[in-house]
Structure formats: structure tokens, C-alpha cells
Design a protein that fits this description.
By secondary structure, this protein is mainly alpha-helical. The chain is 62% helix and 5% strand.
């Protein structure tokens, strides 16, 4: 694996940050294309909503892991929590969602925006996870033929990678997610004409990702928190139930004044 993508003189360009940035840029381009397709791009309030999603997403990604980092390391400094602490994709999604809801209210934009974000989120996640693939422990041991092997040097270069990861086949869990996100991007593009209620496209993506992420957690190698489940899975259980309830319950006709 390759935590450092390239060296530019004395500067080391990190793989994770680079692909996260590329993913954000791709998501924004997709958002812009979708907004133009739906005829709403001219409203400058959408840029404030995007900014709210990015800022709150970044804060959510950090906040979701800050307490665990502080508990494990004892480091409660702002630098430690903000720079050395981890990041959570689920926390980032939750933070971005909250940021959109709050910013929409602040700028007075009443139409739903989730469907504008949905394809871009999937595309951006696919690109961003390449950085995770290059810089994080792959997954749990496997006997499957597509297991990846890390040399001792590669394992040592990955922060937090246990020594037992070296020289044994491991689930390429981030490859699974990249493939899922690319498939989700294609499905969302095809599903757009068939989902007539505002917000359904985004919630369809969230439901699909929640189910996928719950399952892939079993081979991610994350810390078990309760009864064989990780913290992410414990968060996903009620989240998935709420999303299923959204799709199965009788719903009134969508209106332009709907709130998410």
C-alpha cells in the first residue's frame, strides 16, 4: 500500500487526503450537472448549501471519532483531535446531512436538495475510498482468491496496521466499497426518471449504503463494541430501520415546501 502518493521535494503528498479532495471535486461537479439538469443551478443559495454540507461533513467526520481517539490516547488537545484523530465516513455523511438541513433553513431555500447530491456522493465516495485503500488496513484475513497481501514494510507504513496483517491474504474491503459506490452511481443515474417524489433518490442511496456498510463491517476488522457488532453497525441498525420505514409507509404527495 502507499500512504504517501508522491514526494514533491521535501513535501509528502498523502494518498488519503489527495483522493478525498478529488472525490469532493467530483461530487461537486456531479452536483452542478444535476442542478443544471433540473433547472435550479442559477440559484446562488445552492452554493451556500454545498458549503454547509462540506463544513459540517468535515466536522462530523472528526467528531464521530474524536472521543474514541481521546479515550485511547489520552490526547485531548485541539491539534490531536483535529489532525491526528481519525475520520468517520458515517459521521461525515451525518454531519453533511445536518449541514444541508440547517443551511437550507438559514438561506430560505425550501426545495429538497438530497436528490441533487445523491449521484455525486456515490461518485465522490468511490474516488475517496481509493485513498483509504492505499493508506488504511485492508480488512480481516480471508481464504478467498482475491485476498490482498501486505509485505512487512507495507504493513509497517500504514498507521494502525497490526503486525499480523503482513504476509497473509486479507479482504480488500475498500475495493468492495469502491465497486459498490460505482454501481450505486450507475443505479442512481438510471433511477432518476422513475422516482417521482423529491428526496427518494437520496434516501434510496442511503438505504443501499446502510445495508452494504453493515455487511462489509464484518470483514473490515474494526473494533467490536457490543455482541459482535462494531460501533458503525450499532449506528446503522436504527438508521436502516428508519429508511425502510420511510419507503414502506404511506406517504402524502411531495410538495415544493418539503423539508429534506
Amino acid at each position: 500500500m502507499r500512504p504517501v502518493l508522491v514526494h514533491v521535494g521535501p513535501l509528502a503528498i498523502p494518498s488519503h487526503g489527495t483522493f478525498i479532495l478529488l472525490g469532493v471535486l467530483a461530487a461537486f461537479v456531479s452536483f452542478r450537472v444535476e442542478a443544471r439538469r433540473r433547472g435550479v443551478w442559477g440559484d446562488e443559495r445552492l452554493l451556500w448549501i454545498v458549503a454547509g454540507a462540506l463544513v459540517c461533513g468535515a466536522l462530523g467526520a472528526k467528531a464521530a471519532t474524536a472521543w474514541h481517539y481521546a479515550a485511547v490516547t489520552g490526547d485531548t488537545s485541539l491539534v490531536g483531535l483535529a489532525v491526528r484523530g481519525g475520520r468517520s465516513i458515517l459521521g461525515g455523511l451525518a454531519g453533511a446531512y445536518a449541514g444541508v438541513v440547517v443551511t437550507r433553513r438559514l438561506v430560505g431555500y425550501r426545495r429538497r436538495t438530497g436528490d441533487l447530491f445523491a449521484p455525486g456522493v456515490a461518485l465522490g465516495m468511490a474516488i475517496g475510498r481509493v485513498g483509504c485503500l492505499l493508506s488504511e488496513p485492508p480488512g480481516t484475513p480471508t481464504d478467498l482468491p482475491w485476498g490482498v497481501r501486505l509485505t512487512p514494510a507495507e504493513a509497517a507504513a500504514i498507521p494502525g496496521c497490526p503486525a499480523w496483517c503482513a504476509d497473509r491474504p486479507l479482504h480488500p474491503s475498500f475495493v468492495y466499497e469502491i465497486l459498490f459506490q460505482l454501481a450505486a452511481f450507475a443505479v442512481l443515474l438510471r433511477a432518476r426518471p422513475h422516482l417521482t417524489r423529491d428526496g427518494d433518490l437520496f434516501k434510496l442511496y442511503l438505504l443501499g449504503y446502510a445495508v452494504f456498510r453493515f455487511l462489509v463491517e464484518f470483514v473490515r476488522g474494526n473494533e467490536v463494541a457490543w455482541h459482535g457488532l462494531t460501533r458503525s453497525q450499532l449506528f446503522l441498525v436504527p438508521t436502516t430501520m428508519l429508511l425502510v420505514w420511510y419507503f414502506v409507509r404511506p406517504q402524502p404527495a411531495a410538495t415544493a415546501a418539503s423539508t429534506t
